[in-house]
Amino acid sequence: MPSTDLYELLGVDRSASTDELKRAYRKLARELHPDANPDDPAAEARFKEVSQAYEILSDPDRRAHYDQFGTQDAFSGGFQPGSVQDIFDLFFGGMGAQGPSRRGGPQPGPDAEVVVEVTLDDAAFGVTKDITVRLLVHCDECHGSGAAPGTSATRCTECSGSGQVRRVRNSILGQMVTATPCPTCRGMGETIASPCSSCRGDGRQEEQRTLSVEIPAGIENGSTMRLMDRGPAGPRGGPNGTLYVHVRVAEDSRFERHGDDLHHEALLSFTQAALGATITVPTLRETCDLEVEPGSQTGTVLVVRHEGVHHLRGRGRGDLYVHLRVEVPTELDEESERLLRELAAHRGETVKEQPHGLLSRLRSKR
Question: pTM for this structure?
Fold first, then answer.
């Protein structure tokens, strides 16, 4: 290796931390890797230099020796192409030269999804819902083993029960070992000479099942519940997957929900708004009476405490907000019109004059 300063090779200060060294090396290794620079001997040589520099500086003892003496004694023996564990860790998330770890034997079943619709009342107080789904379940005849009754699976001779086959290839970095699922046993680690006639060796059959699901009080529209081990069964006795339950809360014409609070619009006549009144408004399961003060306007909000939705996490409930809207009549009988005109005159208010045409004369004769 040339006498160039190792820190300069990586483009970092001498005080660089371990993480800074790793980031610098990762960047340079990607730029200079032979796969990214085919037929470029200079890039390949540079790649070896920065790899060796990182190998030294990432080792606390060798880095301390280099910092003290500044010589190549700290890495006598030179760069070893077969020592590339750090490169695998950086680029492949710690798989290492042996490839990703894999457990032989039955694998978990896949995940499944289902949508369940509940009412606002159900969402507010919680409910147990029965849902019907089609799922893969363990075969009753072979009890999920996949083998015909009276027989059993045997250890795979191709992979010796590991569920993997490994292949070695040479590269510029040394020998690389890759692991893939065994084609003979499909990664199970076992083979079946006499498959079950009902499930054809899979250990599963599709059936319609009814499941009881607990919907918690306070759940919101669009929430997803994750039910471990309630999904499809795994092949050959493997554990069940996960069932995801998407909750849809139906709209309620009485209320609009905002978080754990409910909002309701109450209609008032203009006389009730002017004089005050006691009105009855709905709650989730009952009704309650509210006092409307004289002179209340459209947009006035009355609050009923603790009549909202239960808090999903924690005790208590939200509130009910009652929004008042004053209705103005669109049609009046003669007596009502007369009284209103008298009221307007009494208050000194200018109103539209009563029509005196043919239609009004006809109406007055009736």
Answer: 0.62
